[in-house]
Each structure stands twice: as C-alpha cells, then as structure tokens.
Amino acid sequence: MSLLELTVRNVKRNFRLYSIYLFSMIAGVIIQFTFTSLMYNKDIMDALQNRANFQTGVGIASLVVFLFIIFFILYANSFFMKQRKKEFGMYLLYGLNERQITRMVFYETLIMSAISLFTGILIGGLLSKLFGMLLMDLMNYNQVISLSFPMPSIAATIGVFLLLAMIISVQSYIMLNRVQLTELFHAKQKMETPVRVSSAWAMIAVLLLGMAFALISSGKGSVFWQDYATVSMIAVTIGIIAGTFLFFRQLAGWLLQAVSRRKKYYEGNTMLWTSSLRFQIRGNTLNLTFISLFSAAIMLLLSFMTINYKVQFEAVGRNLPNDIAFESLASSTNNRIDSLIRSSGHEVRYHLTQEAIVAEPVSDMGPAFENPEYYTPYLLLVSEQTYNGLMQERDPKQILDLQGEEAVTLAQGSDFAQSYAANRQPEFKVKTDAETAFRIIEKKDYAYLGWSSDPVRSMVIKPAVLVISDEAYRSLREHADKKSFEIYGIADAGRAEELSKQVHAIVTETPGAYYSSFADVYSKQIEGSSLMLFSSGFLALIAIFALASVIYFKQLREATDERMQYTILRKMGVDDRQMKSVIRKQLLFVFLPPLVLGVCHSWFIIKYYILDSVQGFTGLTATVWGIMGVYFLIYVLFYVSSTNVYYKIVNENP
Asked: Which residues contact 440 (CB under 8 A, 6 or more apart)?
C-alpha cells in the first residue's frame, strides 16, 4: 500500500477526528478569502474617498488575520497530532520512518487544504458580498455590492494555505522527532498529579488582582498615573497576568481543597466532580489563564473599536465645528471663494465674518489648554458677543455670559474640562501692547474655530481661543493686532471634499492663512473608524474560533482520557442523570471563572480609561454591556456544546 493510499484510508477511517480539523481549516479559508476579497472589490473601491488609506489598512489587517489563522490552524494540528500518537507509534513499529510519516501528514494536509480551499472560497465569496454591504453601511455609503471572486484574493488564499501546509509538515516532523516510540504508545496513559496549594499563595492571587483593579479604578487623573505612570503600568500588568495565573493555580485548588474538607463532601456527586478537577488543575492552569486574558482582549478590542466608531460621527463635528472657515483675505479673494461656495450645489445656511484679537500668552499654556503642543503658540481673544453670534447659528446651548475680567478657555478634546469656583479661578495673563490678567471661570471642551485642516494631511493644528467679556475686548481692541475669519455653514458638508480642495487651493495662495473644513476629515475619519471596527470584528471572529478550539480540543482530549473512569462509574451504578450532572458541574468550574475574570479585566480598563474619557457621548456604556452580553451568550453556547460532546465521548466504548 502506497503512502497516498494509506493517507486516503486514514481520512475515511478517522473521519470524525478529521472533520474537526477540516472545520478549522475551512473557517480559516473563509475568513482569509472574505477579508482579502474586499480589497479587490471594484464596487467598494469606487465608493471610497480615500482608497490608498483603505488598501493600506486592509493590508495591515490582512497580515494580522494571517497570523491569527496560523495560530488557529497550528493549534488545531497540535491537538490532531497528539490524538494520533498511538497511531504513529504503530507506523514506526511497522517500519516507517519519521520522514515517511511526515510525508503522509503532508499529503493529508494537502487533501484537506484542497477541500478547505474549494469550500471556503465558495462560501467566502458569498459572504464577501454580505460583509461588503455591511462595510458600506458602516461608512454610510449607499453603494450596491456585486458578488465577485477576485483572482488576486483566490491566489493569495491558495498561497497562504500552501505555506501553512509546509509549516504544518515541519511542525509534525518536529513533534515526531521529539518523542520516543514508547511515549507514542503511552501518550494517553499519563496521569496528572494534584497541585500542592497553600493559603498564602491563594491570598497573594487575591492581593495581586485587587492591586491591579485598585490602580485601574483610581483613574488616569490620580497621582499614580500622573506621577508614576510607568511603575503603575508595570504593576497593573503583573497584577493581572500573575494574579490570573495564581488564581487558577492556587486559589482554585485551595477552594476545591476546602470543599473536599466539608462534612457533606461525600454526599451527592460533589466528590466525583471536585476530585477530577483537582487532578486537572496542573494541566489547565495555562489554558484557563490564556482563556481569561484572551477573552478580556477580545471584549476590550471590540468595545474600544465600537466606541471609537460611534464617537467619530460626533467627534469630527467637535474637532472641526465649522463646515468651511478661513482667515479673511483680500476682498477680491473673499468674493471669489464666496461665489465658488454658492455655485457648488451646497446650500449656504449662514455666512459670518468674525473678528479676534491676536495676543501672546504670558502664563503657562498647560493649565488652560491641555497638550499645548497641539495649539498655535499665539492666542485669539474673541469677544463674548462675537462668540455668541456664532453659537446662535451653531449651538445655542454654548452661549456664554461674562463680566469684567472673566474668561473661558476653549480646550476642545480636554479630558479635564471644568468650571472653577469663585475662590479657585486661576489667573491667566496675556500680552497685546501691555499685559492683561484674566480670571478663568471655565475650561470648556469645545471649539470655536476648530483644527486647521488640509485635504491631504487632515488635521494640522488648532487655534488657542480665549473668550473674554465685551468690555475687556473693547479696552484691548484699539492697540492690538486683529484677524478676521469667514465662517460658512453649508448643506451636506460631509460630501463637500471637492469643494474643500478648491477653496483650500485658493486660501493657501496666502502663506500661513488659516483654513478649516469639516469635509477634509469627515470621510477619512468615518472610513478609517469603519475599517478599524470591521477589521476588529474579523479579528474577534478569528479569536473566538481560536478560543473555541482551545476549549473544545482540551475538553475533547480530557473526555477521551477519562472515558475509562466514566465506564467504571457506570458499572458502579451511576446513572445518566448523575453523570450529566457531574459533567455540567465539572465544566462549569472550568468555564465560569475565566469568563468572570475576563469580564472584570476588560470592564475595569474600558470603564476607567475609555468611557471616562468620552463622558459627553451618550449610549456608550449600554453598547459595551451589549458586546459583553453577546460574548457571554457565545460562551454559554461553548459550555452547552462542550457538555454534550463530553457526555457523548465518555459514553463510547473505550
């Protein structure tokens, strides 16, 4: 019998085991092809305003997808090879050498890759249309997506899986050469030994996790993060990783040991499921730690990208609140731009010409404007009347009422916007022809002019604006340098990219002139955040598949190893109901703690470092809990599926 015939016979004989591996490969092909095909879809590319950025983003995300797929498939192959160690031992006993067995595995991989490629590309092509429509919906583009099977995507997917076939062969060869023949025959007979646990190490696990959660919940405005950020970051990382590891290695074992010392330990089926878990702790510690941290990473990634996507629609308007704004130029140039805007097809809702005084800051800019490096080195002093005139058109809720030396700093993007009590109002000095001191009554997370922008570079720098009372403005105006700005509100500003390019070209004929346009950033930000959310969704999908494979393959192996023990229990009179109860309790102890820890890790980080930074946006907390709820439901399905598979395997004849 040739190696190829032996390979085909193996596939037919062990179809159930092969089907698990085959499913993993098909899932990998579907994800790889579906994602890469979007980059070559003509309908999608026609709809985009920033094609080069999209292709770069998809290229980077494709690389990450590829790395995830490699991990996913190699983990599945590792399980597959371990399950067949006894079979390989027989082949070695019959005279085959490691190279021949490796070649046989390579043939098997090629056969499965061929099946996976055909099935995965077919399903992936159908799904690419669905995902393409979803991507266009995320970007708010009304574009019809046609069904397509781009040849570059097919070629790339085939190339990826041929490379994987070679990597799998190398992995298989290494695994075969690292074990002895006797190990191959007795691979499934190795028994775990209970871990020695101590209450001291269990307490250290609680203290490490408590320290990490306490540091995170202190918030980034606390002294720990303001003055000792690096040390705090290291402490949190150690606390989460080491604390999670010791939680499963020591605390879980200590709890099981405590249960075993109870008087009612021998009543019911408690002894059956706890004794099995105590023996599995050593082998499960790394897996459970990985599952907890991986679950936290999945929820954190999806929550962050979803929040970023939801925030961008409003954040672009906050960063660039004016549809078109530019520094007043010569009258002829202003009239030329005005004619261009009014003939563009975008209805002009309002046009204001507003004046500001140019001043130099004497006081430190830091307290008044967070991250002063993002602002112009000079200040624009805007009168209360001028500011309120624009707010009447843009947002009446932002209207101010100032008296005397009172002033408000417009620090858009500030994490620490605040109003100051009368006895705590900081002094801020500016210089025109002479120094003038103002009392800052509020640091406002709002923009008057917004970032200066560029159709290519997007946001460049933002003007530092101080709103002062009308009487203070009048007293400074006579002997100060002044600038005027033309501010337009137009209809459908998000689609005004071409108009913005034309106006920008005219304004920049005057070097250093201020220009800002909502359209310059809107399409880039929305397309970028949509692509990041879409890509993170794919990565989360792969990660969930990888997580499912870790859980499923581990439970499958343990169920196979414990088949004899359950056969003995059945002979001792344990009925099906009791066996199912034992399996459910045993697996619940494996599934529930990683989920709880994963949710805690991700929630603390999301709550105190993401949600607290975007408090002005509504509905985000509910979105995060929605993501965690969906993940919880998926995890419940993993649990139910694992209990059913576990029960079926232990009921088979050993």
From this structure: 368, 407, 408, 409, 420, 425, 426, 427, 428
